[in-house]
Specification:
The structure is a homodimer of 365-residue chains. Chain A has 365 residues and is an alpha/beta fold. In chain A, 46% of the residues lie in helices and 15% in strands.
Chain lengths: 365, 365
């Protein structure tokens, strides 16, 4: 157990998915966690799970994390700032500008408040879905307002690091526009797509496969929660949805007249732009555009793959990524090897001269 | 190796993802497969992979499977019907009405043609992505036109069964509307969403997580192929997209005036409809609505889960599904047990009287 950066105790208000996950992760680090929630049952469940101990009178937290539903955040943050005058208070709500405005209007002690947002979640909420590793590698956005002490920001960054997240700082307006783009608009787009299935014949819905399942997965999310999130970020969401609708109109217009030369181009442009947009999303997503890919046929015999990798090493080429394709019952597999573009041509020639058979990588269909 | 229903030899025209996967699956069954493709390299790759042998002069296939790009299908089907006057010919294109119309106009021998569509694919195409198990459990739609002999339909159904698919029959128009709903419209919706990312600041795109990745995954698909598919099914796709746009307009209107009482309701309705739509998609997708779920806390000790399942059996309750939740480092896990609603209450009481602690299942957030 590596020692914690956070100087506890930490009070977590809201024992749902995020609150309980933060508690589990901090407890693993040996930080004392005090759990509070309007629901005693929720506190008991989270405590049983190992997310902390129920809060008690006389608790003196150094840090309070408010993880309640969006509409309640500002009120609870103000309450906690008053209840614990020596504590630093943060919240984990997914929209930041409105909360700061509410706290300012309420005359809260903003010097001890830092708004933040861990970019993590699951399809299902509640402490039962909590995981100590929920935040691993995920961004944890700090949206500092003017005049917050650097020491306070460091304390929240330590909290983020303790749960395995990547802390970063972002202006609240920029953050809110960003989550509208990568989270709130996708939620509505997926919900509206899934809504098309409600009145569809069983025979048609029965044709659905993984593509539709992935595209609509987040449409299973909690409407009560999402009405609050979307209401809090309505302007940014509406702006992006309006641009989305303009593209949609062009596609529908083109489909109504498929003979027009312009039509296929219009639709094709949307599909090509989709390729480009997907390529910008961080994390593995098809091939990494920075590398060239060699496709080598590997006989399905012991040691053949090892021999290939050894010989690539002998050629002094650094392999950036390796992906294997092998079908049940096939006599051979394929090793997809990602290398720097400048090395690809030489390596291909060297491998062929060593007797390996290379092929063209397939295009996603 | 179970014996094949298909009376080969089978000629496959088009050694891409679908053609090579059919070949791999048929070869596993011991069916002779002859591979043809405009690209010699594609045939060689598929043959190396074990999908069959290159086609040769004098081949006399009993069945021809045309698996070429959509725009070429009708022409190739007509050519194959002429080249092999004793063979039954099918195609695997994802839109059926237009091909039948083209073949009719060309005066092809429709008595030996059956249009079909295996509902399977992968993000990436080409023989390199082929898998013998690509069709396992997937629907393989037959779209028979009037006057096709029942024996011919059985032959295609045998082909589908030999590759592990579920053959079913559907009117071509119904099929084309169905794939527009579950495949073609989702493709455009995902592409248009991903297109919003093209000009977005890195800092905003950097906030993306699994939700956006899933929602846009199919936006990585091949534009050249999809322009052909969407062009061939333009009317059905445009009809569904137009209804989708009407819902989208209502949401955008509501977001522009979030104070209106109607506004949250409008947005909430879209989110609730999304829940209902997702629940209709076959395959595991959150909880199965037919069952009630009990959430039992299980101490993280050897034998505890086994004891729970034994005691459920002792209560004479049949467990429809079991899902486990356990966080790294947690002292307990949770067993989510799906049972018939009528049994849920009695089982909950029995388990609590046996000393188990039950909780409320979390709602997807």
């Amino acid at each position: 157990m590596t020692s914690a950066r956070t100087r506890g105790p930490v009070r977590i208000v809201g024992a749902g998915l995020l609150g309980a996950s933060i508690g589990l992760a901090l407890q693993e680090k040996g930080v004392e966690v005090q759990l509070a929630d309007a629901s005693r049952a929720a506190v008991r469940l989270a405590a049983d799970y190992g997310a902390g101990r129920p809060a008690a009178d006389g608790d003196a937290p150094a840090l309070v994390v408010v993880a309640v539903p969006p509409e309640a955040v500002a009120e609870i943050v103000a309450r906690e700032l008053e209840a614990f005058p020596d504590a630093l208070v943060t919240d984990v709500a997914s929209v930041k500008s409105g909360i700061l405005a509410e706290l300012t209007a309420a005359g809260a002690d903003l010097a001890r408040y830092v708004g933040s947002h861990p970019m993590a979640g699951r399809e299902r909420g509640g402490a039962v879905s909590a995981r100590a590793d929920l935040f691993l590698g995920r961004p944890w956005v700090l949206a500092p307002h003017d005049g917050v002490a650097e020491a306070h920001l460091h304390a929240i960054e330590d909290l983020a690091l303790d749960v395995g997240a990547r802390p970063l700082r972002m202006d609240a307006a920029r953050h809110d526009h960003g989550v509208a783009l990568v989270s709130h608009v996708p939620q509505l787009v997926a919900s509206l797509l899934a809504a098309r299935l409600v009145d569809a014949p069983d025979a048609e819905v029965g044709l659905a496969g993984q593509g539709l399942r992935d595209t609509t997965r987040i449409a299973g999310s909690n409407p009560e929660l999402w009405v609050q999130i979307l209401g809090a970020n309505a302007a940014a969401v509406a702006e992006i949805l309006t641009a989305y609708r303009a593209d949609l109109d062009r596609v529908i217009h083109a489909l109504h007249d498929p003979e027009r030369v312009g039509a296929p181009r219009t639709v094709a442009e949307a599909l090509v732009a989709g390729n480009e947009g997907v390529a910008r999303i961080p994390g593995k997503h098809g091939q990494d555009r920075r590398f060239a890919t060699l496709l080598v046929t590997v006989p399905d015999e012991p040691g053949e793959l090892g021999r290939l990798l050894t010989e690539i090493g002998e050629e002094g080429v650094n392999m950036e990524d390796l992906r294997l394709e092998h079908s049940p019952g096939a006599q051979v597999g394929f090793a997809e090897i990602a290398v720097l573009p400048e090395a690809a041509h030489r390596l291909a020639a060297a491998l062929e001269s060593r007797g390996w058979s290379l092929s063209e990588p397939g295009r996603n269909a």
